[in-house]
Design goal:
CATH superfamily: Vaccinia Virus protein VP39
Radius of gyration: 16 Å
Bound molecules: S-adenosylmethionine
Structural class: alpha/beta
Strand order of the largest sheet: 3-2-1-6-7-9-8
Strand content: 15-25%
Distance between the termini: 39 Å
Number of helices: 7
Number of domains: 1
Number of strands: 9
Largest sheet: 7 strands, mixed
């Protein structure tokens, strides 16, 4: 109960801090699958304090628009968001375009398919699309300095490790010192993913003490 209260408190405080980014004249829907406000603030603070410029996100939505608004206000920084659902990718792309943010953030539709890095025959974002798009993006803008892993969906019982491939697949594109956030680590599979990343890549992911339900790590320099 106390943990839930603290989470609600941090989210409430985060809504207040987010408000300058939510009042730009364009309505932005939030849902239960959106990154929690406290996690958004954690990422926004990392973008600001870590001077992050080359962002990649797995799983697009409200977070994509909020981060794009922040980088647009700041005047620099890019975001590429991998999205498995074509309709959702089009919806987020439309919102970005309506707000004049297409130059800041791009949603790449990458359907889920069998993937060599996926666990137990699970799928991940289409290998060739990811490779082509991420290579072109990093050739143009430099190595990724912030990776947010909030997709593909992993809540189903047989998909709890669905987000595992993100770090190994994108590892060679990450800058030393890059930040990595894995959301929803509180549910089944979350701990195993972070343990595998630690063992296989030396990436130490720490649960956020502020109840965001995310784990955060830094790529070793
Ligand atoms: C955990 S969500 C990603 C959320 C996103 N990072 C955000 O903070 O809004 C994972 C997937 O759910 C789907 N999704 C996201 N927001 C949605 C919404 N409001 N309604 C339906 N599906 C959504 C997208 O396919 C997305 O890749």
């Amino acid at each position: 109960m106390e943990a839930q209260f603290l989470q609600a408190f941090y989210d409430l405080a985060s809504w207040i801090r987010l408000s300058p980014l939510l009042n730009n004249g364009h309505y932005l829907p939030f849902s239960v699958v959106s990154l929690r406000p406290s996690a958004m603030i954690k990422v926004l603070d990392d973008i600001a304090l870590g001077d992050r410029k080359v962002l990649v996100e797995c799983g697009s939505g409200t977070s994509t628009v909020v981060f794009a608004r922040m980088m647009n206000q700041r005047g620099y920084g890019k975001l590429l968001s991998l999205e498995h659902d074509g309709e959702w990718a089009a919806r987020v792309t439309t919102q970005l375009a309506a707000e004049g943010l297409s130059d800041v953030a791009t949603v790449v539709h990458a359907p889920l398919e069998e993937h060599p890095a996926a666990v137990k025959g699970m799928d991940w974002y289409a290998s060739k699309t990811v490779s082509d798009e991420i290579t072109a993006y990093t050739d143009k803008h430099g190595a990724i300095d912030l990776l947010l892993v909030d997709g593909p969906p992993g809540w189903q019982r047989d998909r709890t490790l669905a987000r595992y491939p993100a770090a190994p697949v994108l590892w060679d594109f990450l800058a030393p010192g890059a930040s990595v956030l894995l959301d929803d680590v509180n549910r089944a599979g979350g701990k195993e993913i972070t343990e595998r990343w630690k063992e296989e890549l030396g990436l130490d992911m720490q649960l956020d003490p502020f109840g965001t339900r995310g784990a955060f790590g830094t790529v070793p320099s």
